[in-house]
Design goal:
Layout (H helix, E strand, L loop, with lengths): L2 E10 L6 H19 L3 E9 L3 H10 L3 H18 L6 E4 L3 H16 L3 E11 L4 E3 L17 E10 L5 H10 L4 E2 L1 H10 L7 E2 L1 E3 L8 E2 L2 E6 L1 H5 L2 H4 L7 H6 L3 E6 L3 H15 L6 E5 L2 E3 L2 E2 L10 H8 L1 H11 L6 E2 L2 H31 L11 H22 L3 H22 L1 H4 L6 H22 L4 H11 L7 H4 L26 H4 L10 H7 L13 H6 L2 E11 L7 E6 L3 E6 L14 E5 L5 E3 L2 E3 L2 E2 L1 E4 L2 E4 L11 E2 L1
Parallel strand pairs: 1-2, 1-12, 2-3, 7-13, 12-13, 14-16
Antiparallel strand pairs: 4-5, 4-6, 6-8, 9-11, 10-11, 14-15, 17-18, 17-20, 17-26, 18-19, 20-23, 21-22, 24-25
Helix pairs in contact: 2-3, 11-12, 13-15, 13-17, 14-15, 14-17, 15-17, 17-18
The chain binds 5'-O-[(L-methionyl)-sulphamoyl]adenosine.
The site of 5'-O-[(L-methionyl)-sulphamoyl]adenosine has 21 residues, from strand 1, helix 1 and strand 12.
Length: 645
């Protein structure tokens, strides 16, 4: 099995995990699960960065010893990941004695080779970054990340001869276009390297800081945090002698955000070169999650806690949102409303409905077993081909960390499959025994499409994909190469529909759940003014003005379910264009699964009423012919919410 090794940054323990940390770790977990799906032997590493000034100050603020503090926060990071269905193989702490020994071993080796020397340095030191900054890096004389003015300090210290490796690094980046991706960050690094590269100060005097790894050759100094932290990528593999190092280091890849590009793209490869090691294979750099246009960060106090989101939406919904909403490499804005909207629209409506409608039909029309397919028609072939093409696009995009594109490709097929149900009308086929073959083909095509969708979702939404696989009876499908082909479902095998995949969430603001006030209702004066002319009431006629008060609109049904203990009522979720619930007395005439995707006419400004405990915001129009009810329809598709007059 080919090895694959991917790491996240190791996070500072001066703050509890927030959504920004969660994003990098969800990305790494997703890619690792994807590589496993391709059959690779994967090693996934994360951890915590526990030395340095920042941590000492945070512990002092918390009024506990540094040891106690780092143990506490590191444990919080460790505990945060399973909540998001993230499963790292190794969790490195820079205070682990094993890690500290590796750092000291490397320092000694590089020192003996002559690439570490003692000297005096005067420079602008940013406490937040824990590094010296050049004049050029400042914006308005301040550190652009911490918005504070750096202090000018002079110190005797040890230096790493980083400048010596500048030409080698430029050459390496130029010859390996995939070394730093996306390309904008590669260009940023190459442009930085146009200026002479200074040597790197890699020590801090113990007079200023004792919370660090002592230099093995001079115990008056501790190691600068970056020379300590970056080495976690080696120490976690048991460097230098461990077999895991030999196996995984040659294929190492790192995920980071753009804030730590310089240490990863410049310090780290030159450090590796000085150690006589090959550089990592690829560095994947993403943008920031912002809140109201500002980077989400502890220091700015605008963080979102992943655990709180998971409690409300579930781990898979949060993972999906993070991967779908951000274009890897660019910044993205976080908002609660956007998360609710993605959950309801992409997960509950599109995926959840497709799954539950298909499974209900297999249960009702095929006795909960995979049906025998007949000869496929053009329409069936088209869906099958689209599902296979989805796998190709999905792989191309995931190979390049384009998660949002991979998911768009999957959702395109989900939407196609939902339309396929509307146009093939399996419930009509089920009424005609002559169409049994055709019905079998349609249901089989849907189930196979769902099986392939399930495969693609394994890395993204592991819990949902596991539920889907269990329902479809394909729990052993864990390899994309073997299983990403059409027609693996065996006719006759059992299908076991389970619970709903994603419960619908109500929006937070109350007014969003209410239909917007109808225009006509805002104009009682006008209606009143014309009322005296409305004389023909006795004849059962209404005036045009009275009719105008009725707000008829086009609504699209996006979800439908039976109401418990009622034979007559269905609870419909419609888009008109806002989402609303309407209770309709059509359960004896329509199955829920045949309603989704239909457009109907509703009375949008009917006073809300509760029916069997469910609040109904409007009424669906239907024709009544004896005992029969036939829903209103339009002769062509119309934007939901359009007025009917
Ligand atoms: N300890 C160093 C990294 C050492 S790696 C050898 C460090 N720690 S950190 O806690 O500040 O984490 C920075 C990383 O957290 C970013 O590179 C990114 O992975 C993640 N993020 C923190 N805030 C973020 C956003 N607002 N948006 C996206 N990712 C963010 O730097």
């Amino acid at each position: 099995m080919n090895p694959y090794y991917l790491t996240t940054p190791i996070f500072y323990v001066n703050a509890q995990p927030h959504l920004g940390h969660a994003y990098s770790t969800v990305v790494a977990d997703t890619v690792c699960r994807y590589q496993r799906l391709l059959g690779k032997d994967v090693r996934f590493q994360t951890g915590t960065d526990e030395h340095g000034d920042k941590i000492v100050h945070a512990a002092a603020d918390a009024e506990v010893s540094v040891h106690e503090y780092v143990d506490r926060i590191s444990a919080m990071f460790r505990a945060a990941w399973p909540v998001l269905a993230i499963a790292p193989d190794t969790f490195v702490r820079t205070t682990d004695p094993a890690h500290m020994a590796v750092v000291q071993g490397i320092l000694q080796q590089v020192y003996e080779r002559g690439d570490i020397y003692f000297s005096e340095y005067t420079g602008l030191y940013c406490k937040g970054c824990e590094q010296f900054l050049t004049e050029k890096e400042l914006v308005d004389s301040k550190c652009p990340d911490h918005l504070t003015e750096p202090e000018r300090i002079s110190e005797q210290n040890y230096f790493f001869r980083m400048g010596k490796y500048q030409e080698w690094l430029i050459d390496h980046i130029s010859k390996h276009p995939e070394f730093i991706t996306p390309e904008r960050y590669r260009n940023e690094v190459l442009s930085f390297l146009k200026e002479p590269l200074e040597d790197l100060c890699i020590s801090r005097p113990t007079t200023r800081l004792t919370w660090g790894i002592p230099l093995p050759f001079d115990n008056r100094f501790v190691t600068y945090v970056w020379f300590d932290a970056l080495i976690n990528y080696l120490s976690g593999l048991g460097y230098p002698a461990g077999p895991d190092f030999a196996r995984y280091w040659p294929v190492a890849e790192h995920v980071i955000a753009k804030d730590i590009l310089k240490p990863h793209a410049i310090y780290w490869p030159t450090m590796l070169k000085a150690m006589g090691l090959e550089p990592y294979k690829r560095l994947h750099v993403h943008g920031y999650w912002n809140m109201n246009e500002t980077k989400m960060s502890k220091s700015l106090g605008n963080v979102v806690r992943p655990g709180e989101l998971v409690a409300e939406f579930g781990a898979d919904s949060v993972r999906y949102f993070l991967l779908r909403e951000m274009s890897f490499g660019l910044d993205a804005g976080f908002s609660h409303e956007a998360l609710v909207a993605r959950h309801n629209s992409d997960l509950t409506n599109d995926l959840g409905n497709l799954f539950s409608r298909s499974l209900t039909m297999v249960k009702n029309f095929a006795a909960s077993a995979v049906p025998q397919p007949g000869t496929p028609s053009e329409q069936d072939r088209e869906l099958a081909e689209a599902a296979l093409a989805m796998l190709t696009h999905y792989r191309e995009h995931l190979d390049h960390f384009a998660f949002h594109r991979a998911l768009a490709a999957v959702w395109e097929v989900i939407s196609r499959a939902n339309k396929y149900i509307v146009s093939t009308q399996p419930w009509e086929l089920a009424k005609d025994p002559q169409q049994a073959d055709r019905l079998g083909t349609v249901l089989y095509t849907l189930l196979e499409t769902l099986r392939l969708i399930t495969l693609t979702l394994r890395p993204i939404m592991p819990e949902t994909a596991a539920k889907m696989a269990e329902t479809l009876g394909v729990t052993g499908e864990t390899n994309l190469n073997d299983c990403g082909v059409w027609g693996r479902l065996v006719p006759g095998s059992a299908i076991t529909p389970g619970a709903q995949l994603f419960p619908r969430l109500q929006r937070e603001e109350k007014d969003k759940t209410q239909p917007p006030k109808a225009k006509a209702m805002k104009e009682p004066a006008a209606a009143k003014a014309s009322a005296p002319e409305a004389t023909p009431e006795d004849e059962g006629l209404v005036t045009f003005d009275a009719f105008q008060k009725l707000e008829l609109r086009v609504a699209e049904i996006i979800a439908a379910e039976k109401i418990a203990k009622s034979d007559r009522l269905l609870k419909l979720t419609v888009k008109a264009p806002e989402e609303r619930t309407i209770v309709a007395g059509i359960a004896q005439h329509y199955q829920p699964e045949e309603l989704i995707g239909r457009q109907v006419i509703i009375v949008a400004n009917l006073k809300p009423a509760k029916l069997m405990g469910v609040a109904s915001h409007g009424m669906v129009l239907a024709a009544k012919e004896g005992d029969r009810l036939v829903l209103s329809a339009l002769s062509g598709p119309v934007a939901p919410g359009s007025r009917v007059a």
